[in-house]
């Protein structure tokens, strides 16, 4: 019997039949794998940032150690941000993603992913929070919904403690487990647009008419 031994430096064959007469009835091959190469490491992770005033600047910094060339891509809400791929021929690699003028739609979750010859590593997922936005009093229960006033605007709210109450429909056809409600009355006829840009997670929206859960009539919905 021969033993095939692999490591990062050599390939060696050892006869081992005479060593294992009791354990092995015949001869075959034993395989040994060497240690895996280390993937790149974030030595400095991006940090959560809170913006109190719209129009100010924000940035996220990452430092990575790996095997050049290192390729780093920034993401927002898990989606690659166009134009943010950077390649470095040296290690460690320092990279800063800057937002010169923060708007309401820049809020969300940010992270970086780096690749080298040995593999891929994702950074911590951090938040760009914008406390300057006015609160929107979205409620868990339909009966407690609060009105949105005006023909346009923006605000912030959360659904981390929300539930799905009995009799609530599957919004946009998706059987989700949590939702919040707002009420809006159109000031005139026309087309209106609602969106959740700046959310820290993937959302869906649904619009209804009706005064109770039992009498809701779907108007539009999108996941």
Blueprint of the fold:
Elements: E1 2-6, E2 11-15, E3 29-32, E4 41-44, E5 49-51, E6 58-65, E7 70-76, E8 79-88, E9 93-99, E10 108-116, E11 119-122, E12 126-130, E13 146-148, E14 182-184, E15 205-209, E16 217-222
Notes on the structure:
By secondary structure, this protein is mainly β. The chain has strands at residues 2-6, 11-15, 29-32, 41-44, 49-51, 58-65, 70-76, 79-88, 93-99, 108-116, 119-122, 126-130, 146-148, 182-184, 205-209, 217-222. The strands form five sheets. Strands 5, 7, 8, 10, 11 and 12 form a six-stranded mixed beta sheet that branches. A hairpin with a 2-residue loop joins strand 10 and strand 11 (119-122). The protein is elongated and about 60 Å long.
Proportion of helical residues:
under 10%
Radius of gyration: 27 Å
Chain oligomer state: single chain
Q: How would you describe the shape? A: elongated
Report the structural category: mainly beta
Which band does the percent of strand residues land in?
A: 35-45%
Number of helices: 0
- SSE topology string: EEEEEEEEEEEEEEEE
Number of extended strands:
16
Task: Give a quick summary of the entry.
The protein is mainly beta.
What key attributes describe this structure?
223 residues, mainly beta, six-stranded mixed sheet, three-stranded mixed sheet, 16 strands, 39% strand
């Amino acid at each position: 019997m021969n033993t095939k031994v692999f490591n990062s430096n050599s390939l060696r064959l050892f006869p081992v039949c005479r060593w294992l007469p009791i354990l092995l009835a015949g001869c075959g091959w034993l395989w040994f794998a060497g240690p895996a190469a280390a993937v790149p490491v974030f030595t400095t992770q991006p940090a959560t940032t809170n913006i109190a005033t719209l129009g100010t600047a924000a940035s996220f910094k990452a430092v990575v150690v790996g095997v050049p060339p290192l390729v780093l891509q920034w993401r927002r809400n898990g989606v690659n941000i166009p134009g943010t791929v950077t390649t470095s021929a040296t290690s460690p690699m320092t990279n800063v993603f800057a937002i010169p003028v923060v708007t309401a739609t820049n809020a969300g979750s940010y992270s970086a992913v780096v690749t080298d010859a040995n593999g891929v590593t994702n950074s911590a997922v951090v938040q760009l929070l914008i406390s300057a936005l006015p609160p929107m009093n979205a409620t868990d229960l339909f009966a407690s919904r609060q009105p949105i006033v005006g023909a346009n605007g923006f605000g912030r709210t959360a659904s981390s403690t929300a539930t799905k109450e009995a009799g609530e429909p599957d919004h946009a056809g998706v059987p989700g487990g949590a939702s919040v409600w707002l009420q809006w009355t159109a000031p005139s006829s026309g087309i209106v647009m609602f969106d959740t840009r700046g959310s820290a997670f993937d959302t869906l929206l649904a619009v209804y008419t009706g005064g109770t859960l039992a009498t809701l009539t779907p108007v539009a919905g999108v996941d």
